[in-house]
Design goal:
The chain has helices spanning about 10-25, 30-50, 55-65, 70, 75-80, 90-115, 130-135, 140-175, 180, 190-200, 210-235, 245-255, 260-265, 275-280, 280-285, 285-315, 320-325, 330-365, 385-405, 405-410, 415-435, 440-460, 470-495, 505-515, 535-545, 595-605, 630-645, 650; strands spanning about 5, 10, 375, 385, 515-525, 545-560, 570-575, 580-585, 615-625, 660-665. The protein folds into three domains: about 5-50; about 55-490, Amino acid/polyamine transporter I (Up-down Bundle), CATH 1.20.1740; about 500-665, no CATH class. It contains 28 helices and ten strands. It is of the alpha/beta class. Helix 8 (about 140-175) crosses helix 19 (about 385-405). It catalyses: K(+)(in) + H(+)(in) = K(+)(out) + H(+)(out). Belongs to the HAK/KUP transporter (TC 2.A.72) family. One of its GO terms (molecular function) is potassium ion transmembrane transporter activity. Pfam families: K_trans (PF02705), K_trans_C (PF22776).
Length: about 675
Amino acid sequence: MGCIDPKHGVILDELFYQYHAYCAPFDGQDQATQRLRPIIQHKEKAMSKERKQSLSAVTLAAIGVVYGDIGTSPLYTLRECLAGHYGFGIAPASVFGFLSLIFWLLILIVSLKYLSFVMRADNAGEGGILTLMSLAGRNTSARATSVLVILGLIGGSFFYGEVVITPAISVMSAMEGLKIAAPSLDRYIVPLSIVVLTLLFVIQKKGTGSVGKLFAPVMLLWFLSLAVLGIRGIMQNPEVLQALNPKWAIAFFAEYKTVSFFALGAVVLSITGVEALYADMGHFGKLPIRIAWFSAVLPSLVLNYFGQGALLLKDPAAIKNPFFLLAPDWALIPLLILATLATVIASQAVISGVFSLTRQAVRLGYLPPMRIIHTSEMESGQIYIPFINWLLFIAVVLVIVSFEHSSNLAAAYGIAVTGTMVLTTVLSCTVALKNWHWNRFLVPVLLLFLLCLDIPMFAANAMKIWSGGWLPLLLGFVMFIVMTTWKSERFRLLRRIHEHGNSLEAMIASLEKSPPVRVTGTAVFMSRAMNIIPFALLHNLKHNKVLHERVVLLTLRTEDAPFVHNVRRVTMEQLSPTFWRVVASYGYKETPDMEEIFHRCGLEGLSCRMMETSFFMSHESLILGKRPWYLLVRGKLFIALSRNALRAPDQFLIPPNRVIELGTQVEI
């Protein structure tokens, strides 16, 4: 019975559950088994086919999706390190120093910290900063949990700030190759970048399934090209390989002292996108992501960076764009096209990431409900959120028009990335101490070591705040305010709604003993808490003075897990002859479906038909009470969010003609 794939809903346990609930009561066990056998065989074949999917295919897919952002960093990283903003010349000491720093950051941050340590922290196979936040808060005190939640929300907010810059800097860096092919085309770089990104955002509503099939081959070709170009450069100047020795990184700090600290703000560009390794873990698994890194991505990146370094040692004038100048003249146009495709894929990866993060935040109660469209019948992770898509598009276009050049954007890039890295270190070490029960002396040492890597990079990027670093911080701050406002004000609202203090059990007993006028059919009252009288039920009795012959109190609960097994989806309890309590549980990566809930209620003996059921919901008109000015602003923001939030019938796929909304005014 252990064959479970909760992500796709393929659970053998459920089949036997349905057998006992549906087939067994009929013609005996043999006939029931005959009815069930074709279903089991079909499910087993589907699961067997999925298990037989080769590791190489999944690894190839991981190359296409996970490493898009970090894989396009060679377009601009070394140029920004040595372009003159920090006063470094194209001397062997500076070139070797930067190459050594880049190499050891890839080893220490990506290979050791994320692939070896952070990816151990998974929630049913899923990763990401909000997942880490949930894991870290499981075995801590209430006060510590509150602090960890704030840290997790700050990390999620940083991601929103980062995702605006990633598409802009990636696509613009690729388009700037036009200046090498034809300098007169320089003025078209910004318009062409906007055109490419416009097409990318337009096709989001079609889903990434069909486009995604091209991701892996294109990115594999991209990494092969990086490796080939790097080898070509290294062969012309093999002594550049000396930079593999960490003594060059140490000598770099010893020679340049204070300036070398500020230069970390450029070096960190080589590891932007590292959070995708953890966030996309649920799509591909740990092993394929690790294999892809060590077998293809890491060697290609190192070869290309060192190839660019070899070119600069030979020709310092190549600093204007060492990546494209590394290629022979005949390959410039094909490389430009390939780079554009690679940056589009990198942009797609972060856009999909912000969709996933938004859905998690909505389901966990940190953002208001909004329209989420599933673009694939097979993969639950392929979603499209129109509001977020076009809001992000507007922000990206404004960034491109305002900054005009990828070098200007590089000054804004990094602060959100390194801030998230610091928070990831704190949360993951908390998980190691509280959840994995690692040695309490070892964990502080590990925490100190990782913070010694993360904090200097964050501090160096913080120095760029006035040259563009304010942008991701501002965007992150806005998202943090929105998420904390929605969570806290929603809690305040629910407390006001349920402050009447009436007992649910006493009310049901009273209604059964002295019932009002009963009408035929089923009434479903949406209840936010299990033991609280639904507001809509009180108002229905008060104003309509009738009650249906069968009443269902339905609570939808989001669990601290990405997916919930179907056999645990619905629990049902009969509270009285005419009252039932139904609790439907969903993971934070799932979308509730009322038809599915009714189907599972039927398996338990409570048969409900959608067209014979009335759904009663409360609609609150919010009024602000007396507050301090800062709470007044937060209250007005909450009211604005509530007015634009997705209505409950649309959230749960309920036909509009089956919904009755009872309104009331609530002072918050």
